[in-house]
Amino acid sequence: MKCAICNTDAQAVCKFCGRAVCGECASQREYRSGAAPKYFTQTAKSAIIVSNAIWCRQCHVETA
After folding, report:
1. What is d(CA 21, CA 10) in angstroms, rounded to the nearest whole number?
2. For a designed S-S bond to 40, which of 13, 15, 25, 45 qualifies (C-beta 3.0 to 4.6 A apart)?
3. 52 by DSSP, 3-state: which?
């Protein structure tokens, strides 16, 4: 698989859009899942947050 940006060998996949990216083109961004396991609802948490998800920097991520 090749990087969608620079066409070198890819090392990861963007969590937001699915593009393959190499280590040079990849970035990190916070990712919030829309669902939480049943036991999280008892502690008032509605999402799981990953602070260093792979992001290609090409897709536009909207935050709410």
Report:
1. 5
2. 45
3. strand
Quick one: tokens of 36?
Answer: 């939480």
> What is the extent of the structural domain holding 38?
1-64
Q: How many domains does the chain have?
A: 1
1-30: pLDDT as tens digits: 999 999 999 999 999 999 999 999 999 998
Are 7 and 61 in contact by the 8 Å Cβ rule? The answer is: no
Torsion of CA 34, 36, 41, 43, to 10 degrees: -100
Estimate to the nearest angstrom the gap between the alpha carbon of 50 and the chain centroid.
Answer: 8
Cross-strand partners of 12: 21
What is the CA 18 to chain-centroid distance, rounded? 9
Q: Can you tell me the distance from the alpha carbon of 4 to that of 17, in angstroms, rounded to the nearest whole number?
A: 11
